[in-house]
Amino acid sequence: MNVEVATYHEIIEAIVDQEVLLIDVREPQEIAATGSIPTSINIPLARVPQELKLSRLAFVAKYQRNKPGLSHKLIFYCKFGDLSQTAAEEAVSIGYKNVRNYKAGYSEWTFKWNEWDDYVDPEKFKQQERYKEL
After folding, report:
1. Active site residue 78
2. What are the pLDDT digits (tens) for 27-60?
3. Which residues lie closer than 8 Å to 81 by C-beta, 6 or more apart?
């Protein structure tokens, strides 16, 4: 199945744009050990189909984020992009239309984000000159 690849720039924009849902599909233990991309939620790979099928109210209660509609942009990621590819394909198979895989994954994010760590707050981040340069 062909799923578009998300770029680092799209990840930066997703942090600022709360309409885009970043989904980390790694296991909670791995996230606890390494961290995650700001604003992302964690849905382990094995739970992706079930969680995306939750009712709107159940999704909000569990994740404190609006449940994405079928046309909302979803970006899946893991450490290197393999698990997130599977998750993205599963989302497409249940009807989501605007799905991306951040194939470079959390490994690229941590490498590139080190220079941006002062700008984790999305509102402050949008105001930074370096954001405008992306």
Report:
1. yes
2. 999 999 999 999 999 999 999 999 999 999 999 9
3. 101, 102, 103, 104, 105
